[in-house]
Give the backbone structure.
Amino acid sequence: MCRSGRDSIAVMTTSDAAPTAPASSAPSASSASSGPAGAKPAPRDPWDLPDVSGLVVGVLGGTGDQGRGLAYRLAKAGQKVIIGSRAAERAQTAAADPQLSSLGVEGLGNADCARRSDVVIVAVPWDGHRKTLESLREELAGKLVIDCVNPLGFDKKGAYALKPEEGSAAEQAAALLPDSRVTAAFHHLSAVLLQDPEIAEIDTDVMVLGESRADTDLVQALAARIPGMRGVFAGRLRNAHQVESLVANLISVNRRYKAHAGLRVTDV
């Protein structure tokens, strides 16, 4: 998960019910079937998602545990991936690791990563979130941005949620990037599981939030590229705070049970 300060605890929670839709691949979009003249079109199938296999995905903060794990899983699924860092040399060193280089992952400075990518995942620490996005406003213009940052604080009692002035990290991103299409997703993933090559499937749902169905469909389809994973629409960006905040609870779950469990949404 993307959070501030501490990378050693990776968090998710799980439900007993299995999903009713396949998670290993995203089907291509198709038009709604037409009926008699004047009849209402058939409702869209929420699992009829676009083909995103040709999109280039950039990961800002791709040298951290969460960003690196997402880069690895997406590249392993066949996506072209670029990892970004404030220092291009650091990104290049990370991309040169055999686990990533064998999959064609590149490393660039953040600005070049943003320019070269169609979709950009923001996986930076919370304390660098504002500064990073302010510096990349031009490069991220017109891009689909996926914010997965969780604003958290830590004290002797454990993790607790912070509430940004804008309401959430995703809403802060939307305010800082008026020319980008901002969504929120990938908050509750275990960095440990994402990076483990021995694990074939990541058994989890991804909560996806955004203002445009076309954009959230793309993010859902991207999540579904990773075997075992499924993207589930969870509302507009105004609902992002509680999704980000849940990570504070999940840290407690995993510390108590020594787990790397996964979130599942039932009955959809």
Confidence is low (pLDDT under 50) at residues 4-34. The CA atoms of residues 74 and 226 lie 6 Å apart. The two ends are 23 Å apart (CA to CA). The longest strand covers residues 204-210.
